[in-house]
Amino acid sequence: MASFPQHPVNPPADPFTRRWGWWTATLWLLAAIALIVVKWSAIRWFALGDTDDSLRIAEVNSWLGGQGWYDLRQYRLDPPGGANIHWSRLVDLPIAGIILALKPLLGFAVAEKAAVAVAPLLPLGVAMGSLALAVRRLVAPAAFALGALLLLCGQSALFMFMPLRIDHHGWQLAMLALAVAGSADPKGARGGATLGIATALSLTIGLEMLPYLALAGGVTALRWVADRGERARMAAYAATLAAGAAAGYVIFASYANRAPVCDALSPVWLSVCLGAGGLLVALAALRVERWWLRLLLAGVAGAVLAGGFVHFWPDCLGRPERVSPELDQLWLSHVREAKPIYSHGWRVYLPTLALPLAGVVGALAMLWRTRRTPTFAGWVTPALLAVSACLMLLWQARAGPAAQLLGVPGAAALGWMLLPRVTRDRRTAVRLGGTVAALLLVSGVAVPLIVNAIPPAKEARGRKAVALANRRCPTLPALAPIAKLPAATILTFVDFGPRLIATTHHSAIAGPYHRNGAAILDVQHAFRGPPEVARDVMRRHGATLLLICPGMSESTIYASEAKRGLYAQLMRGRVPAWLTPVPLPKGSPLRLWRVVP
């Protein structure tokens, strides 16, 4: 039977476990090389796979071109005023640094491709190292390799670290992994400081991981309630959270985020971090011996913090996007990742859930096995986070990457329990077959293998056409003729706007960013309504070109929900008199018109 630490582990004597950091770095380097090889063709063609990745590189290039540090408006979306973007410059730093370092040697184009290829691999290294450290602390010193390798088995999580995936999600996941490592640290002050720093950095980047990080902070306070000896952990967490959030706000908060907005680190969430930090530091300084009195004080502190939030920031009690009902109906309700995981079909949700469920089973088993040992306290946070992430999937599928990452510690523990049972068997077939089966089970890889082995139903012709359009329209060859035209503002799909501004010198009316609801609605009305509405939208936004990609995912919504709208009319060949076609090369997947003067 596998052994687990009953007290803080001393440095192991064997070279493998003693040099765990070196081995983890080697695993990361091998993984990084493999991912670059797999994505080499996409890197060569600058095939950024997501609208947010395209906007991120556009933001970086705007900054390198002279735009202010605190000015995050994207002026090539909805010009001349620009689109209000709620991100921070923190994630721009490594991308810009790589471009600036390589541009003198390789030229801008190659440096840009190198940056989008390498930058996502940096948070992958942080995440692998953090999970290896957490598993080393919670399971066994030699189990660190499982922590690093299992992250590579989660398809949804790994996708966030792939080359070209330069959006902020990879760094968010890396900070979440670092928070798990901090919560597992047997040294209270160091672990609390790690958790506080990871939380502050994550909030500086964005609020996506706030529910998990708030839960980890709550558990830190409960550890003090259960054991007054944990006051150093709580005090260090509170101090670094408050100081880190304040530094993140001062250094990175954009002009727009200095208003009391709910979707970024603003005065709203800065006040929460400062209030929580101050209250927890004060509690840690009290010499309260009775646990029930500590619980009462913690409850009062939580009530004060919640009451203050409700009093000062009542507008932030709902969804942070705060979109209008019309925008939600026409646009946000169609975003697939914002829908529950079970709405995506079993071929999607079974592979997504495999690793998180294995992690939940392993974490709960470890809570039981370590219930009378000091290691139990270290397992509380990973276990609760793993369970909460699985529950979050019932709300939105976008929780999949975090659920897979948070499942790693429990899955590693489950593997550490199963592997000795098969590796000690005298029969070679059992040792080899059992080891492979156990790894496939705890990693969740067995589920996608089984799912992929089941022949899918014949794909409808319409879906094939949509997939083909989604692949062809954003490519550099398809957009090259558009890029040769004089710079103009173009009416195009909401989801196509970021790709257009990232690969050409043109501007677009809107991108899929909730703060710019009026511009998004204008595009929706233009394609859904009669031609006169589109003409008015283009006039008000100064757009002189109209660009569509027939069959692209967004277009199917217009075709099905607005059968008499402009897009549907264009597809039937009914072009309004105020539009004249612009010739494109034969075989182009795009269609372009110019407004008649």
Give an overview of the whole structure.
62% of the residues lie in helices and 3% in strands. It is built from 29 helices and 5 strands. It has helices spanning 15-18, 20-38, 40-44, 51-64, 92-106, 108-118, 121-138, 144-151, 155-159, 169-183, 188-205, 210-226, 231-252, 267-285, 291-312, 325-330, 346-369, 375-393, 400-406, 408-423, 428-443, 446-453, 461-472, 476-483, 497-503, 517-528, 531-541, 553-561, 566-571, and strands at 489-491, 507-508, 545-548, 579-581, 591-595. The chain has a 5-stranded mixed β-sheet with strand order 2-1-3-5-4. Helix 25 links the parallel strand 1 and strand 2. Mean pLDDT is 94; it is low at 1-10.
Task: Characterize this entry briefly.
This protein is mostly helical and 597 residues long. The protein has helices at residues 15-18, 20-38, 40-44, 51-64, 92-106, 108-118, 121-138, 144-151, 155-159, 169-183, 188-205, 210-226, 231-252, 267-285, 291-312, 325-330, 346-369, 375-393, 400-406, 408-423, 428-443, 446-453, 461-472, 476-483, 497-503, 517-528, 531-541, 553-561, 566-571; strands at 489-491, 507-508, 545-548, 579-581, 591-595. The chain contains 29 helices and five strands.
